[in-house]
Write a structure and sequence with these properties.
Strand content: over 45%
Order of helices and strands: EEEHHEE
Number of helices: 2
Helix content: 10-25%
């Protein structure tokens, strides 16, 4: 599967997760700026983001895609709420999107999760 590239400037939360360095930000599907797309990516040139899905299965005990996506979004939104992790305001980043998952209902204010690799 080819990777889609996305570049933007936004607030990025960087946090550790089981030996990975993970970045979380949001994007909006339209001009309202609701942040309805959650972008959770691994910061590692060798990654394609699948590690997040494996962690959701192995640590989170989730076997279907919907539950795995929710587990990933839970880890990212939790990291954003905890003041000990790095919040980088107005950071320019490039993400190489590997997966896009549409949720069946709004979850942590997102209805879409995209995962992949990110460079800050």
């Amino acid at each position: 599967m080819s990777l889609n590239e996305l570049t933007a400037t936004s607030r990025v939360t960087v946090f550790p997760l089981e030996g990975l360095t993970v970045a979380y930000t949001t994007q909006s599907s339209d001009k309202r700026g609701l942040g309805d797309i959650g972008l959770v990516s691994v910061i590692d040139e060798q990654s394609d983001g699948d590690e997040l899905w494996h962690l959701a299965r192995d640590l989170g005990g989730r076997t279907n895609g919907r539950d795995q996506a929710r587990w990933i979004l839970t880890q990212a939104s939790r990291a954003r709420m905890v003041a000990t992790y790095k919040n980088l305001p107005d950071t320019t980043w490039t993400a190489y999107i590997r997966r896009r998952f549409e949720l069946d209902a709004l979850f942590t204010n997102h209805d879409v999760l995209v995962t992949g690799r990110m460079a800050l």
